[in-house]
TrEMBL record, chain B:
Gene3D superfamilies: MetI-like (1.10.3720.10). It is found in: Cell membrane. The keyword Isomerase does not apply. This is ABC transmembrane type-1 domain-containing protein. The lineage of its organism: Bacteria, Bacillati, Bacillota, Bacilli, Lactobacillales. Keywords: Cell membrane, Membrane, Transmembrane, Transmembrane helix, Transport.
């Protein structure tokens, strides 16, 4: 089959790329350069970079995403490592995946009940004598729930990369006298960096846009880039400003992808 | 060594408990006789009765499944032929351009997809509702299918195609008798993956829906903003059961031939990306 | 290839089946309605477009019994959503109940029918104090349905009655992390403006910035900025204080006896939900019949008792229990009312300014 023949197959697909990948981003860029009266302006960008509030919010939102990424990574690596070493690991993996099939909103909703002043966690805290604490509507609760939701997305790629490690390599290290810790740090971890990188990407970027959590769990006391975009588009109806934040988020995303790219593999291709 | 693995098992069990606690908590209170998620006052099925009697909720449930099935079907068709097209492209760098464009929607945060589609639909004068939600779901599902089908194609021995051509098969026959059967598991995996993704989507739908059309996620959000309503818990019990069934079906298909890789959209995508921009 | 067609067929069949079930479900839920519609022709139907849970359902039944009209009751959950639906057309709403500033906007967009006063009865029942408001001078297009104020709900387990008398009392450091705000740009900005003794419809940038600065100072006291779930949280003692509307307050008070509502002294907001006849009207006669039905004090009183909102109907107010009608927080004196202001539609630019300032207030939230 020659490449000429590929053209008819690709018509709907190419149409899709033009209409739903290139065009929307282009429209967003155009929108970001317009004010509420559809006049061309750079005021939105000026507003973003000049107003300390937007910059501070952006910084905070990146910081939250960073914390969520670090927390999930530190829980996930040992988890994935353990999973790759137990019997029936495919079955256990299924148990990791199952929660990702439960609707995100339902999970957030469960935490409203768990964390409220009279909720189960506070009942427990009262029971063991600590007394009820303010849990809901804090940045801690937002980070907790976001980490909970993102956890499986970190475990999966790390697990996959651990499974792909050739078992003869750690065995060889051990034969050469390396302690288990040295083997993990010097042999296994470098070999699974690809999985870690994939996990970081799978967690960091989506965390920036969890606006429903900032609303339901954070009580609007936590505002991320995603919340600001949603507010501007659906509530304040200032699409220009919303698009500006959107374009900045896209750029930030590009930088994240670039920083975490796989340098070795790039050379090979 | 023994002690260490015991510690490991303990750790696994603790993390699993933490992962499932909120879900079981939600399901437990579906059977509560009382109206709050704070104290369990006795066993009752009345919240299930309320849920099934709620025709609005049942209608929304049906909407959600109709959108998921239809969008996945269309996305699977377009995506499969897109993957085929990319596979057949001769020039390597052109292939990479397509893959890069394909991955834009995969790595974009949901709010960006939602907001940019909202601009698109508004400019096109499309009324927000069933149609806009369906189109949006098709659009974000296509790259998932491409990413699941393409590795199957690459894995295929190109000698198979040449042999078929040498034996006088026309392009249609090559496609129908050689390629499609070979990549069938990839297509099915793509189909189920997009269904679950569509069922789970909140942010994109939230942006592009309107005129009273609602899917399950949007409805749960709206109800959660009204306060606790235990028929949502009953619904979550039901949905958990549905996901369990879907997971099992998906596993039968995925584990049939391909092992280990490509279990979830985000993980899959990042594996395909190899962790970098193409 | 055959497999693909087969597969597509199966999926489409399933979709068709689901669709069939859905149509069946819709049919089932509208069965009673359509049964009623079968016997009566279209002229006998009245379509009301109102907020959810904002009328005593037995009143609708009573109206149907009395007049023979069949009522289709449809609901919306924001003024903006209602506006879009009526503006788009293709709907047949005979009677709608938007809020003050939205009536001004609808009037400007030419979406309202002027009221024919020859068709209206019992006009003397409407409290003259609540008529002739700036959003509809001379009540040419609308008549009040319910009205109320923006105030403060507190829990008497944590707050003494004399600790919250003015908006400024919210800034008391004692209420660190204790105040819930209702998530709405105009209302929260309004609190900021009112606490500076400025007009809540201000279009003076320095006043607005001052109000925003004032709100930033309130942030340490703010526990959360939430929507309708504010009612659930207050009932469950999650927060000590909430800034909310009198109507929401009544519903909370009914569920938790520790809660109380105060209307802060000084400036503040007074709101109206008025009945209007939109351009989409098909059955004007039925719309007037319903307006007249609600003007009857016994009906208006029944509605007020069910919803808990303040009625504009003088006769109806007299029929309410003494504790309700003599409560100055829900039925303030004329003197108090004089200080309150109704929101005006400020046009696109100022609305955006309010929204942007409010969003900046929400973003600037670091403890």
């Amino acid at each position: 089959m020659k490449s000429k023949q590929s053209i008819p197959y690709m018509v709907p697909y190419v149409l899709w790329i033009v209409l739903f990948v290139i065009l929307p981003l282009l429209l967003m860029l155009i929108q970001s350069l317009q004010d509420i009266h559809q006049q061309w302006t750079l005021a939105n960008y000026a507003n973003f970079f000049r107003s300390g509030t937007y910059l501070k919010m952006t910084f905070n939102s990146i910081f939250y995403a960073f914390l969520v990424t670090v927390i999930t990574l530190s829980i996930s690596y040992p988890m994935a490592y353990g999973l790759s070493r137990v019997k029936n690991s495919q079955f256990w993996l299924l148990l990791v995946i199952l929660p990702t099939w439960v609707n995100l909103l339902l999970k957030a909703y469960a935490f409203i009940g768990l964390l409220s002043q009279t909720g189960t966690v506070n009942q427990f805290l009262g029971f063991i004598g600590i007394g009820p604490q303010q849990l809901l509507f804090t940045d801690t609760s937002f980070i907790l729930v976001a980490s909970y939701i993102e956890l499986p997305f970190m475990i999966l790629p790390i697990f996959n990369s651990l499974v792909e490690v050739n078992p003869s390599l750690p065995n060889a290290a051990r034969d050469l006298g390396a302690t288990p810790w040295q083997t993990l740090r010097r042999v296994i971890f470098p070999l699974t960096l690809g999985g870690v990188r994939a996990g970081v990407q799978a967690v960091f970027i989506p965390t920036l846009s969890l606006f429903m959590l900032t609303r339901l769990i954070g009580g609007n006391r936590v505002i991320t880039l995603g919340t600001a975009i949603e507010e501007h588009f659906l509530i304040t109806q200032n699409w220009g400003m919303g698009s500006t934040i959107g374009i900045i988020l896209v750029v930030a995303m590009g930088i994240t992808m670039y920083v975490t790219r796989d340098r070795k593999k790039r050379g090979k291709r | 060594m023994k002690k260490q693995s015991l510690l490991m098992k303990f750790y696994l069990i603790v993390v699993f408990l933490l992962m499932y606690l909120p879900i079981f908590y939600l399901i437990l209170f579906a059977f509560n006789r009382g109206d709050y998620m704070t104290s369990f006052t006795g066993f009752s099925l009345r919240h299930f009765a309320t849920m099934f009697a709620d025709t609005r909720l049942m209608g929304i449930l049906l909407n959600t499944f109709i959108i998921a099935l239809l969008s996945s079907l269309v996305a699977t068709l377009v995506g499969t032929f897109g993957a085929l097209g990319i596979y057949l492209l001769k020039r390597r760098n052109l292939q990479n351009v397509f893959l890069g464009l394909n991955n834009i929607l995969m790595v974009s945060p949901d709010v960006i997809i939602g907001a940019s589609f909202l601009i698109l639909f508004t400019m096109a004068g499309l009324a927000l509702g069933f149609g806009s939600v369906l189109i949006a779901h098709i659009a974000f599902s296509i790259p998932i299918v491409v990413l699941l089908v393409l590795p199957k194609l690459n894995e295929m021995d190109s000698a198979l195609i040449r042999a078929a051509q040498d034996l006088g098969a026309r392009p249609y026959q090559v496609l129908s008798y050689v390629i499609l059967p070979y990549i069938w598991t990839g297509i099915m995996a793509g189909f189920f993956m997009t269904i679950t993704y569509s069922l789970d989507d909140f942010a994109v739908t939230f942006f592009v829906t309107g005129n009273g059309f609602t899917t399950l996620s949007v409805e749960i959000y709206a109800r959660a903003r009204q306060g606790i309503d235990l028929s949502i818990n009953a619904l979550s019990a039901l949905m958990f059961l549905v996901s369990l069934v879907l997971v099992i079906i998906y596993y039968f298909i995925a584990n049939h031939k391909q092992k280990g890789s490509g279990k979830h959209k985000r993980a899959t995508v990042n594996q395909q990306l190899g962790g970098g921009v193409q | 290839m055959k497999r693909i067609f087969w597969f597509m067929g199966v999926i489409l069949a399933v979709v068709g089946l689901l669709f069939g079930v859905k149509v069946g479900l819709d049919w089932q839920s509208s069965q009673q309605k359509s049964a009623a519609r079968m016997t009566k022709n279209q002229d006998q139907t009245l379509t009301i477009f109102n907020w959810g849970d904002y009328i005593d359902p037995t009143l609708i039944h009573e109206f149907e019994q009395k007049t023979g009209y069949h009522v289709d009751y449809e609901t919306f959950d924001s003024n903006e959503a209602m506006f879009t639906k009526i503006e788009q057309g293709g709907t047949r709403y005979d009677l709608a109940i938007p809020s003050d500033y939205m009536i001004q906007k609808m009037r400007a967009a030419n979406l309202l029918e002027p009221l024919d006063y020859h068709e209206l009865k019992d006009l003397q029942e409407y409290d003259p104090e609540l008529m002739n408001q700036p959003f509809d001078p001379g009540n040419r297009y609308s008549l009040p349905y319910f009205w109320g104020t923006l105030g403060i709900v507190y829990n008497d387990q944590d707050v003494a009655a004399d600790e919250l008398k003015t908006w400024n009392d919210l800034w008391n450091p004692k209420w660190n992390q204790s105040v819930m705000l209702y998530d709405s740009a105009r209302d929260v900005m309004g609190v900021g403006l009112a606490s500076n003794d400025d007009d809540i419809n201000s279009t003076n940038m320095s006043e607005l910035l001052a109000a925003k600065g004032r709100l930033d100072a309130l942030m340490p006291n703010v526990k959360a900025i939430v929507g309708d779930e504010i009612k659930m949280y207050m009932v469950q003692n999650e927060a000590k204080i909430a800034v909310d509307f009198s109507g929401d307050a009544q519903q909370m008070l009914a569920q938790n006896s520790h809660l109380h509502y105060v209307l802060p002294q000084g400036r503040g907001n007074m709101w109206f939900d008025n009945m209007v006849i939109p351009k989409t009207v098909r059955n004007k006669k039925a719309a007037y019949a319903f307006i007249n039905f609600l003007a009857d004090p016994t009906h208006a009183a029944k509605n007020a008792e069910y919803t808990g909102y303040s009625t504009p109907n003088v006769g109806a107010k007299q029929l309410l229990p003494a504790v309700v009608k003599n409560n100055p927080d829900f039925y303030p004196s004329q003197q108090t009312l004089k200080k309150l202001t109704v929101y005006q539609d400020l046009g696109l630019d100022w609305t955006t300014t309010y929204n942007d300032l409010y969003l900046e207030f929400k973003m600037n939230n670091h403890r």
